[in-house]
Design a protein that fits this description.
Layout (H helix, E strand, L loop, with lengths): L6 H10 L4 E7 L12 E6 L5 H8 L18 E6 L3 E5 L10 H17 L3 E9 L6 H13 L3 E6 L6 H15 L10 E2 L8 H9 L4
Parallel strand pairs: 2-4, 2-5, 5-6, 6-7
Antiparallel strand pairs: 1-3, 3-4
Length: 211
């Protein structure tokens, strides 16, 4: 249990996540962005970090967000409507992408422009593979979010793939790195989509952003 959320808040969040979350649209160009009448959260991370798997696990749906064994397949901003309370956005993975270079540049430009200028974006959940920690590509996005004053929170993924000792080390190293970034929130959430670890805390964190 997180020190930030008591048992009642966690249970309320679990109940909220039984409410509908539906795919809205995929955005390849900024002019396709939906009107910003709802607050928004976004999931960002390197290719193959497990964004889609985490979204599916949060809502206990296998096919809400499309997953792929091929890194870099998510090439657009995928919008979901969460109970008419919040937009949830699955952002294209950065870093490695198995796609033509011109296409990679195009969707990376859309990603960066979106993160800099979306007025209703409340928070970015920045997913980091717990086996590898923060990489140079992550630092680039973190610096951009700092400059844009977009609050972001680190979510470590795939924690079931490493030992408790390795996870502790990753948490310590991650905390040290984010302490140097102005827009980074101090709380680090540890998760495993496969083992359902930490999902309750992430749900509570998301629900705390509801107006």
């Amino acid at each position: 249990m997180s020190d930030k959320f008591d048992n009642r808040a966690v249970k309320a969040a679990e109940a909220q996540f039984l409410r509908p979350c539906e795919f809205m649209l995929s955005v390849a160009h900024l002019e396709q962005l939906p009107d910003a009448y709802l607050d928004e959260i976004a999931f960002a991370g390197r290719s193959n970090v497990g964004k889609s798997s985490l979204i599916n696990a949060l809502f206990n749906q296998r096919k809400l967000a499309k997953t792929s064994s091929t890194p870099g397949r998510t090439q657009q901003l995928n919008f979901f409507n969460f109970d008419n309370k919040l937009y949830l956005v699955d952002l294209p993975g950065y870093g490695y992408a198995k796609a033509p270079e011109k296409m990679v540049r195009q969707w990376q430009t859309v990603l960066k422009t979106y993160l800099r200028g979306r007025p209703n974006l409340r928070r970015v959940f920045l997913l980091i593979d717990s086996r590898h920690g923060i990489k140079d590509e992550d630092l680039e996005i973190m610096k951009m979010l700092d400059v844009s004053a977009v609050s972001y929170q680190i979510v470590l993924t795939k924690t079931d793939k490493i030992s408790a000792e390795e996870l502790k080390k990753t948490i310590e190293q991650t905390a040290q790195k984010i302490s140097k970034h102005a827009a980074a929130l101090p709380g680090i959430i540890t998760t495993s989509s496969e083992k359902k670890i930490g999902l309750d805390i992430l749900k509570a964190e998301i629900c705390s952003l509801f107006q």
